[in-house]
Specification:
Catalyzes the conversion of uracil and 5-phospho-alpha-D-ribose 1-diphosphate (PRPP) to UMP and diphosphate. This protein is α/β, with parallel strands linked by helices and 206 residues long. The chain is built from six helices and 13 strands. The two termini are 34 Å apart. The structure holds 1-O-pyrophosphono-5-O-phosphono-alpha-D-ribofuranose (PRP) and uracil.
Length: 206
C-alpha cells in the first residue's frame, strides 16, 4: 500500500531540498525536519497496550507502545532521516544496512548490516530518501525479513512510479510512505524531477 503524505510544510521543505542552489547544511536540515513530520503519519497505527499508572490525583489506565521500534536506515543517504525520527521516538533502536547502486547495472551492492537484539519482535521502519528503481529498498526489505522482521514500513522522501511498482510487487505486505511521487526515471536511473544524488548532497561528496 502507498501513502503519499501531503502536507504544506513537507511541500515547502521538499522544494528547498529540490533546489540545486541549496547547500549541504540546509539540505540536511530540511531532510531531518521532513523525516520528523512524516513520522506522525507513519506511526499512526502502531499498536499500544494499556498500562496502569497513578497521576498525582488518581489511578489511571493509560497506553504505551506495545512493541519496540527499530529505525533501519539504508546507508548512506538513509542516515539523514534518522535523527528527525528519533526526536519523536527517542526509545527507538537503529539497525544499519549499507549498500550502494552499481552505476552501470543499477543493482544494489550490500557492504554492511547490523541489527539490534530484539529486531524480529519490533516494528521496523526502513528509511531512505530516494526510491528510484526500487532495487535498494527491495534488498533492504529482503534483509529485514531474512532477520525475522514481521512488521515493516518503508519511508522514502521521493519515489518514482517504477520503484513504487517494484516494491509493491515484491513486498505487498509492506506499507510504503512517500513525501512525493515524481514523474519518472531518466536513462541513468535518476528520479525526474527528483533532487539529484541524495547521498552526495547530504554528505558533501561527489
Ligand atoms: C541511493 C539512494 C537509494 C538508492 C535508490 O543510494 O539513497 O539507496 O540510491 O536507488 P534504487 O531505488 O534504484 O536502488 P546510493 O546507491 O547512491 O548510495 P549512497 O546512499 O551511499 O549515496
Ligand atoms: N539515488 C539518488 O540519490 N537519486 C536519484 O535520483 C536516484 C537514486
Amino acid at each position: 500500500m502507498l501513502t503519499v503524505i501531503n502536507h504544506p510544510l513537507i511541500r515547502h521543505k521538499l522544494t528547498i531540498m529540490r533546489n540545486k542552489n541549496t547547500g549541504t547544511k540546509d539540505f540536511r536540515q530540511n531532510l531531518d525536519e521532513i523525516g520528523g513530520l512524516m513520522v506522525y503519519e507513519v506511526t499512526r497505527d502502531l499498536p499500544t497496550r494499556d498500562i496502569q499508572i497513578e497521576t498525582p490525583m488518581a489511578p489511571y489506565v493509560g497506553q504505551e507502545l506495545a512493541k519496540k521500534v527499530v529505525i533501519m536506515p539504508i546507508l548512506r543517504a538513509g542516515l539523514g532521516m534518522v535523527s528527525g525520527i528519533m526526536d519523536l521516538i527517542p526509545t527507538a533502536q537503529v539497525a544499519h544496512v549499507g549498500m550502494f547502486r552499481n552505476e552501470e547495472t543499477l543493482q544494489p551492492q550490500v557492504y554492511f548490516e547490523k541489527y539490534p537484539k530484539d529486531f524480529p519482535e519490533s516494528e521496523v521502519i526502513i528509511v531512505d530518501p530516494m526510491l528510484a528503481t526500487g532495487g535498494s529498498s527491495i534488498a533492504a526489505i529482503d534483509m529485514a525479513k531474512a532477520h525475522g522482521a514481521q512488521s515493516i514500513r518503508l519511508v522514502c522522501l521521493v519515489g518514482a512510479p517504477e520503484g513504487v511498482n517494484a516494491v509493491e510487487k515484491a513486498h505487498p505486505d509492506v506499507h510504503l510512505y512517500l513525501a512525493a511521487l515524481d514523474e519518472r526515471l531518466n536513462e541513468h536511473g535518476y528520479i525526474i524531477p527528483g533532487l539529484g544524488d541524495a547521498g552526495d548532497r547530504i554528505f558533501g561528496t561527489k
